[in-house]
UniProtKB/TrEMBL annotation, chain A:
Signal peptide: 1-19
Keywords for the protein's UniProt record, in alphabetical order: Signal
Protein name from the UniProt record: Extracellular solute-binding protein
Entry keyword Zinc: no
UniProt-listed InterPro entries: Bact_solute-bd_prot1, SBP
UniProt keyword Signal, yes or no: yes
Automatic annotation (TrEMBL), chain B:
Residues annotated as transmembrane: 30-49, 89-109, 121-141, 173-195, 224-241, 275-298
Topology relative to the membrane: Multi-pass membrane protein
Lineage: Bacteria, Bacillati, Actinomycetota, Actinomycetes, Jiangellales
Domain ABC transmembrane type-1: 85-297
A Pfam family per the record: BPD_transp_1
Keywords: Cell membrane, Membrane, Transmembrane, Transmembrane helix, Transport
Name of protein: Sugar ABC transporter permease
Biological process (GO), any one: transmembrane transport
Native organism: Jiangella rhizosphaerae
Cellular component per GO, a single term: plasma membrane
Record localization: Cell membrane
Family matches, as Gene3D superfamilies: MetI-like
Primary localization: membrane
UniProt xrefs under InterPro entries: ABC_transporter_permease, MetI-like, MetI-like_sf
Record's keyword annotation contains Lipoprotein: no
Length: 421, 308, 275
């Protein structure tokens, strides 16, 4: 637990003396965490209360707590974690991204392996085997999953009730719902041109051709392939038909759903926590459904998931207790505390999720009729992703010929994959 | 020499009666040293590192590998760099005209008026408000269908359905407006201070001759404010070349990079793409341009022969 | 234009402009005072029906842990600008009174510190700070805030001191005063207004800094206020907009009050037109 020095001292004459002593002056916090505290860094600064809540549980359970440092700027966060490996301030425990970002760290041998921890967790049934590959580089596991989220369609129940709509079971039904809403002057879907501009590309492609979706992220397919172009054209038609809200509207998605600006939001399950925070009640004011496949002939329903790793630096000051903490983090106790604090699903099927809708999704996702696909954001190498986000953001703002955008992304992809040898 | 002869008395140019200037060589160095030291160690030294990185390829991990001028060549070949250069130029032109012009307007209108300092208060508040609050409020105002659109709609004015932050170059222009909102008050304050130091006698004489309003400003105030204006313009120039915060907070440089400035490009390459070399090259380019711009105006204003 | 018309026109233009300037402030106040449950994005201009400003502020204060950061931030925004104006004044004194050789060159060198985009020196600073053992320390924060505020202080102080007649210096020398004593007892007291004006401008800057605080500190005791305030909102949620606004407003209060209440000092201290 972090120690707060609230009543520090009077300013006045002692200011310079005070200035000379920093965070290291209180023994067991700051840079020199003792055995009971682990320095924990994350770019999800807004989640501090939830992390500290779980930290309270862990202190009682394994005698270890988190000394929390949150960043609010994901880009700077990434830069500082990268730089910190050159210094003595290596992070004990920090959140990161799977995919190329993880591979970067492993390539420089900066992470403590977690292969044993994973084996134990899988044997205990704390984590589905399928998750392992996303944490595997060259046969070894690194980091543990910090969280998990599925990308589903949230909807405003009051709006659905008003027009007598029910959750769709096919893409055709979903489109009928959208048409009904549109006919009544309600915007069906949320869209944004900042950061999450990739979401509908991901949904349409994964629901049309999941193999192509995977091939695209591994560099085996091209953005200019026929299938990708077709998806972009479908997206453009939907954009032009007025299915989407204003991509330039920076009102938070939870506020847009609440006010009924849009009726549905294609989003990660962490939106539940945000909806709860604006006093919407799960199952009463909002609910969600798994988005049906665009292509009805696919054997499994494509379900996008994301997972954020929690990693330990090799040779961090508290490497051992950090790994112990990582191990504990995967347990039922930790995951029950975490998912309920956040109001989100858990990767641990044994975690008792209070929110009924989320708990149901947790079970559904584990069943055979769903195909889990890694979120585009993590599945795509960073330089390609940056080009794609820029391209999609321009595309949703001014829908038009997708070819120039796809060619730009593909040029970036060509450069990336050729440099990977 | 400025027109402010009264406020800045003529300095004697003949050597003082006591000691020659050379005799203070060591204590002069002593007085200058702290400033040089702190700036050299904490600003120049880190920037040297950035300059070195600009000649390498580096992803923030492991060690940088030397690539010579490759980053600079790639930079000038990148169409996005040219967009961002264009936007930066719009920012420079916008920032040295709008906030400076408004500042001058507010200062001359309110100067000498009863309750003038009270009427200036609204313009000063924005400067002191934290960036976090300013960012949120302006997103409110400028997003599509946001505060500005709602206001235009309510007043029956056209433009309510403009996509303020989506379309270039409209997004750059409205963001310059937001920046002017923050900066104009400080500029007005600087101009008021300038006006206060104008000697009263010639103004009174002109007034007795029947000069007022525009004529008074054109022939009496403006000539005396010109040196100050150049400094304010110079400071705005340096600041506008480095425009980052407002663009990043409101649009992240988009959509599709159409609102990027050089500083945003630099940031995106470095922090988003982890292409430290490419980002550093933009930073070096930006610093050189800023330095040249600053030195040009400094040379004109702080004429060296007076102090060397 | 007749004087009469001018007498009406001038305040009218000012008031209209002023109202436009206050409109975003109005939005800030009104929406920061709204009960989160009643906030609606398409009705941002609508006044509050129930006043929840203090509840929102309390929420931001508690959840953001802003209380922890107040002491350190106050410390930074007092000490760093104070040091900067002194250091800047010393350079100005060296150049203007003691006729430092190549004074203009040294001045340009110091002022040149402002041309570097701060974002790019963050990482080398971070690594350097860790290696020097001043990462996450108040000493380190004061040092960097001093460094970034020195160039502007040097610009203003050099100009201001240039306005003091050199005879003052010569007379003091005749009286047998040392240079240090002349600086400390004569030049500094003569430039109080400039010192204070620069101090206030730079204290406002330090108080509002987000970038450096984020980069060079980590613990609650060292991290400045804005770093904590910025964490109130991010992509992955955070507080509601009303509370973010209330928090943003709350952390701005000290600088707004300081800035507005000291307007008069500026008039005497900040004449950049004197060369």
């Amino acid at each position: 637990m972090r120690l707060r020095h609230t009543g520090v001292a009077a300013l006045a004459a002692s200011t310079l003396v005070l200035a000379a002593c920093g965070g290291d002056d209180d023994g067991d916090t700051g840079g020199s965490a003792g055995s009971g505290t682990i320095n924990f860094y994350t770019d999800k600064g807004a989640w501090e209360p939830q992390f500290l809540q779980v930290s309270d549980v862990s202190e009682g359970s394994i005698g270890l707590g988190l000394d929390f440092t949150g960043y609010s700027d994901a880009e700077q966060y990434s830069a500082f974690i990268r730089q910190s490996f050159r210094t003595d301030e290596k992070p004990d425990l920090f959140t990161w991204h799977t995919g190329s970002e993880l591979e970067d760290l492993v390539a420089e041998d900066l992470l403590a392996p977690t292969t044993d921890i994973w084996q134990t967790a899988i044997d205990d049934g704390d984590v589905p085997e399928a998750l392992r590959e996303h944490f595997t580089v060259d046969g070894e596991q690194y980091c543990v999953p910090m969280n998990a989220a599925y990308w589903v369609m949230y909807y405003n129940k009051a709006v659905f009730d008003q027009y007598g709509l029910t959750e769709p079971t096919s893409w055709a039904e979903l489109m009928t719902i959208a048409d009904t809403l549109k006919a009544n002057g309600v915007t069906p879907f949320y869209e944004t041109n900042i950061l999450f501009s990739f979401v509908w590309f991901q949904t349409l492609l994964a629901g049309t051709d999941p193999d192509l979706y995977n091939a695209l992220s591994s560099g085996e397919a091209s953005y200019t392939d026929e299938g990708v172009v077709a998806v972009m054209e479908q997206w453009r038609d939907m954009l032009e038909a007025g299915y989407f809200g204003d991509p330039g509207d920076q009102t938070a998605p939870q506020d847009q759903l609440k006010s009924g600006t849009v009726a549905m939001i294609n989003f990660g399950t962490f939106l539940s926590g945000q909806l709860n925070s604006v006093d919407m009640v799960s199952g009463t004011d909002y609910d969600f459904f798994v988005i049906p496949n665009v292509n009805p002939d696919l054997p499994q329903t494509s379900l996008i998931f994301e997972t954020g790793p929690m990693c330990t630096a090799k040779d961090a000051a508290n490497e051992e207790s950090a790994l112990e903490y990582a191990q504990w983090w995967m347990t039922e106790e930790a995951q029950t505390a975490w998912s309920n604090a956040r109001g989100d699903v858990s990767f641990n099927p044994k975690a008792q999720v209070n929110d009924e809708q989320l708990a149901a999704l947790n079970e559904q996702a584990g069943a055979d009729d769903h195909l889990l696909l890694e979120r585009y954001f993590e599945a795509t190498p960073t330089p390609v992703l940056t080009a794609a986000l820029d391209g999609f953001s321009a595309f949703v703002t001014n829908p038009g010929d997708p070819m120039p955008i796809l060619e730009t992304i593909q040029a970036e992809a060509d450069a990336y994959w050729s440099s990977q040898g | 020499m400025s027109g402010l002869a009264v406020a800045a008395p003529e300095r004697t140019t003949t050597p003082g009666p006591v000691r020659r200037r050379g005799s203070y060589r060591w204590s002069a160095r002593g007085f200058g040293l702290p400033a040089l030291l702190v700036v050299a160690v904490l600003l120049y030294l880190p920037f040297l590192w950035t300059t070195w990185i600009s000649f390498t390829e580096y992803n923030g991990l492991g060690s940088p590998s030397w690539v010579g001028l490759d980053n600079y060549r790639a930079m000038f070949d990148d169409p996005n760099f040219l967009t961002s250069l264009r936007n930066t130029l719009i920012w420079v032109v916008g920032s040295i005209t709008v906030p400076v012009g408004l500042g001058l307007l507010i200062a001359t209108l309110s100067y000498g008026m009863r309750f003038g300092s009270w009427l200036r208060l609204p313009f000063l508040i924005p400067y002191a408000i934290s960036g976090v609050a300013v960012g949120v409020v302006w997103r409110f105002v400028l997003q599509n269908g946001g505060g500005l659109s709602q206001a235009l709609d309510a007043l029956g004015l056209p433009g309510a359905d403009s996509r303020w932050l989506s379309d270039a170059p409209l997004n750059t222009i409205v963001m310059i407006g937001a920046a002017a909102w923050q900066q104009s008050g400080v500029n007005a304050l600087l101009f008021v201070i300038g006006l206060q130091s104008i000697p009263r006698e010639p103004i009174e004489a002109a007034r007795l001759d029947g000069a007022s309003g525009w004529r008074m400003f054109r022939h009496m105030h403006w000539p005396m404010l010109r040196p100050l204006t150049t400094v304010v313009v110079g400071l705005s120039l340096v600041a506008s070349l480095k425009t980052f915060d407002i663009v990043w907070v409101m649009t992240k440089g988009g959509p599709g990079r159409n609102a990027e400035t050089l500083a945003v490009t630099m940031y995106e390459e470095t922090f988003v793409n982890s292409a430290y070399g490419a980002g550093s090259a933009v930073a070096v380019f930006l610093s050189v341009v800023t330095f040249l711009a600053a030195i040009t105006y400094l040379r004109r204003q702080l004429s060296p022969e007076r102090t060397v | 234009m007749t004087p009469m018309a001018a007498r009406i026109l001038r305040p009218t233009v000012l008031v209209v402009l002023g109202l436009i300037w206050l409109a975003p402030i109005y939005l800030l106040l009104v929406n920061a005072s709204k009960d989160p449950a009643r906030y609606a994005a398409d009705q941002v201009w609508r006044p509050v029906s129930d006043f929840a400003l203090f509840d929102n502020m309390r929420q931001a204060w508690e959840i953001g842990g802003l209380g922890d950061a107040v002491t350190s931030t106050l410390l930074y925004s007092v000490i760093a600008p104070a040091l900067a104006v002194l250091i800047g004044a010393a350079l100005g004194f060296g150049i203007v009174a003691l006729r430092l050789k190549h004074g203009f060159f040294w001045f340009v060198l110091v002022f040149g510190g402002t041309v570097f985009p701060l974002q790019m020196i963050l990482m080398p600073l971070f690594v350097g700070y860790v290696e020097a053992g001043i990462y996450d320390s108040r000493l380190g924060m004061v040092a960097i805030y001093t460094a970034v505020t020195v160039p502007f202080a040097a610009l203003v102080m050099r100009n201001f001191l240039g306005g003091i007649a050199h005879q003052v210096f010569e007379a003091a020398v005749m009286d047998g005063a040392t240079t240090w004593r002349i600086f400390w007892r004569i030049y500094l007291p003569m430039s109080t207004s400039a010192l204070v004006a620069v101090f206030i401008l730079q204290a406002t800057f330090v108080w509002n800094d987000l970038l450096l605080g984020l980069a060079l500190s980590q613990s609650d005791e060292v991290r400045p206020l804005m770093t904590a305030a910025a964490a109130l909102q991010d992509t992955y949620g955070g507080l509601q907009l009303t509370a973010v606004l209330a928090g943003g407003l709350l952390v701005s209060l000290p600088t707004v009050v300081l800035f507005l209440s000291t307007q008069r000092i500026f008039s005497r201290g900040l004449n950049l037109g004197q060369f």
